[in-house]
Amino acid sequence: MKLKFILLTLFVVVAWRQPAFPENEEFLHPFIKDVQQVIQKYIQESLDVKQSDLFIEFSMIDTTYNSIKWDEIRILPGRRGAKKGVQMIKYGIFSKGEFRKDFSIKVRVKTIQDVVVTTQTAKRQHILGPDDVKLERRETTKVRGLVCTSIEDVLQLRTKRIVVGGEILIQSVLEDLPLIPNGARVTIQFKSSGVDVDMPGKAKQDGYLGKKVLVKCMANNRSYRAIVVDSKTVIVEI
User: Fold this and answer.
1) Same domain flag for 232 and 211
2) Cα–chain-centroid distance for residue 163?
3) Is 96 found in the same domain as 12?
């Protein structure tokens, strides 16, 4: 029976959609079940993924807990928190709020998600439309960055670089359309001690609402850092 217990706990794969080895779950020690549940919750919250997208493989759990009284298990998080792939997770057992002992366990974390994928190669600064993307279920364990999971959220966004067909889109490669495109004609409002002077200008870079943008004044050929107030107007405080 002891050998069977060790074999059952050697590598337990937990798929949140449906429990792994449900027919053998009744044989798992309550401590092991609690450890798995606490770690599952911690990893899911750290990665911010759906339960159905998270798969965790546990190495053998330390059995020295048998001689220790416990009523609570807590994660003892490291500086980096949980991540995808193989890692060590430290947890502690407590009794009546008092720390009793800490343990470390090796886990392998895998994610499979419904993600936005490009249907064709898109150039830099391409504005995404319905024909450019589709939703596919892909493994994202090795994908770095926050993946895009909604087609509606990426439509009319612009690519920051070339993206190839079939690539999983991550949020960091997309950007909002600028309110003032680079090269657009603008009105520069110079404000000084209650006196406003309007002059024609030209944007030298993309401008976003409330952000600073570099513009060139056509009257004196000088460049200024201005605040974008709308699609045609920027303000320079003097």
Assistant:
1) yes
2) 19
3) yes
Are 142 and 232 contained in the same domain? Answer: no
pLDDT(3) > 50: no
The token pair that represents 121 in the structure block: 């190669």
pLDDT in tens, 30-66: 888 889 999 999 999 999 999 999 999 998 877 666 6
Contact 218, 200 (CB under 8 A): yes
As a residue count, the chain comes to 238
The per-residue pLDDT for 15 is 38
For residue 163, give its domain range. 112-175
* pLDDT tens for each residue of 148-158: 999 999 999 99
- Other beta carbons within 10 angstroms of residue 31's beta carbon come to 17
- Identify the CATH number of the domain in which residue 161 sits: 3.90.1210.10
End-of-domain residue from the set 125, 145, 175:
175
Place of tokens 């889109």: 169
Residue 144 lies in a domain: yes
